[in-house]
């Protein structure tokens, strides 16, 4: 066997060992009967279930991602989702600096982050709970935390919905929202504590959110506004003939098709993340898609130029078109905030592309007004000259008739 193959096998063995080493039935305090490695964030769960009195004694192990962050484990009595979960959250006490463990109930308002998350009783029958740091005197990035809990369960109910996550900041005693990468959104599992059978929803591949963002930014956020600009400024150039219309239609069709693909990916991501909702982003996306669909349908009912209803169709077409472009741009920025790209190079690149388009539109708008004002002034001068000449000629005729 070649040395390179031996090194490869050794590396794989070490990798498997390190991956399975996360699941351990022994902690510094006690030994448990069962354990599982959770599918995300390098977390694990160990427990002992006492069926005689339906008591669950468990230990959750995870790690901080920042010194000012938090880490949480909880149970959802209804479904494997964040909404409705009862959680124990560990973080540094802002007063003493020691490790603090507080209970929280995650109702639907948590996702909106409109008000600080306040500690509330655990809600389930919690007998005791505690948390300790392993191998570190204080919270820091990478420091391991163990959360211990003893719960009284309903008899014969051993299938539990576990949720866990971690965040970057705590404001006072209020944890802030966690990152929204696919692995963070998939931090949930349903585990039968009697048989260790688990059900895990696999996270969506990282390429899908990226494709969703890229398609929507290119279509709703750039191509559709560019198509509006083409129709507004190129149709004034009579030398182009109907070319402006074909350019406008082609840009809008390509933009709407790409936007439809991005919208479909958004629906797919939502279906793979039950309990995770971004109401504003979803609402703006649906509104933009409906407006784009209405614009596409309007082409089938486009009256002829001589039709008396043509002016009403044009007013509708302009209103819906401008509304769709504005909704698309606003929702692109909203989506970047949802994905945590508020201060990224992706947002900078989009802002540069959008500002270039806006700058071109401003320049063309100014030029259009200059041409309009110049033409109005020339028309006024021509009318004045025609009016003045006619008056002189009439005066001569009156004088001749009198003579």
From TrEMBL:
- Residues binding heme b: 212, 248, 281, 317
Instruction: Return the protein name.
Output: Cytochrome b561 and DOMON domain-containing protein
Location in the cell: Membrane
Q: Which organism is it from?
A: Musa balbisiana (Banana)
MF annotations from Gene Ontology: metal ion binding
PROSITE patterns (UniProt xref)? CYTOCHROME_B561, DOMON
Q: Which residue ranges does the record annotate as region Disordered? A: 384-403
Sequence ranges assigned to domain DOMON in this UniProt record: 41-167
As to how many cofactors bind and how, the note says: Binds 2 heme b groups non-covalently.
């Amino acid at each position: 066997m070649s040395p390179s193959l031996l090194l490869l096998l050794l590396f794989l063995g070490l990798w498997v060992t390190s991956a399975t080493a996360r699941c351990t039935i022994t902690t510094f305090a006690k030994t448990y009967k069962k354990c599982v490695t959770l599918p995300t964030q390098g977390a694990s769960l160990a427990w002992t279930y006492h069926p005689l009195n339906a008591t669950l004694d468990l230990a959750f192990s995870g790690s901080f991602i920042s010194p000012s962050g938090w880490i949480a484990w909880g149970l959802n009595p209804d479904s494997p989702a964040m909404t409705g979960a009862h959680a124990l959250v560990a973080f540094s006490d802002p007063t003493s600096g020691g490790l603090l463990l507080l209970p929280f109930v995650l109702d639907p308002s948590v996702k909106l982050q409109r008000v600080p998350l306040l500690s509330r009783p655990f809600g389930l029958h919690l007998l005791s709970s505690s948390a300790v740091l392993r191998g570190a005197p204080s919270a820091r990035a990478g420091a391991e935390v163990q959360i211990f809990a003893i719960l009284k369960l309903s008899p014969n109910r051993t299938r539990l919905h576990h949720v866990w996550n971690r965040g970057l900041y705590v404001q006072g005693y209020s944890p802030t929202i966690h990152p929204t990468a696919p692995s963070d959104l998939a931090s949930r599992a349903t585990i039968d504590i009697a048989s260790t059978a688990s059900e895990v929803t696999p996270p969506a591949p990282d390429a899908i959110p990226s494709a969703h963002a890229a398609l929507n930014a290119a279509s709703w956020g750039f191509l559709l506004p560019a198509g509006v600009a083409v129709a507004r400024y190129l149709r004034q150039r009579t030398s182009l003939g109907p070319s402006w219309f074909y350019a406008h239609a082609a840009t809008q069709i390509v933009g709407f098709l790409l936007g439809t693909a991005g919208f479909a990916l958004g629906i797919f991501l939502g279906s793979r993340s039950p309990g995770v909702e971004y109401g504003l982003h979803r609402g703006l996306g649906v509104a933009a898609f409906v407006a784009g669909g209405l614009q596409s349908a309007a082409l089938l009912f486009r009256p002829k130029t001589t039709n008396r209803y043509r002016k009403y169709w044009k007013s509708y077409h302009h209103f819906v078109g401008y509304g769709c472009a504005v909704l698309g741009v606003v929702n692109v920025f909203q989506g970047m905030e949802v994905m945590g790209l508020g201060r990224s190079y992706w947002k900078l690149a989009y802002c540069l592309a959008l500002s270039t388009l806006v700058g071109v539109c401003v320049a063309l708008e100014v030029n259009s007004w200059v041409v309009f004002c110049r033409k109005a002034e020339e028309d006024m001068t021509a009318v004045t000259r025609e009016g003045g000449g006619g008056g002189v000629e009439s005066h001569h005729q009156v004088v001749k008739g009198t003579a």
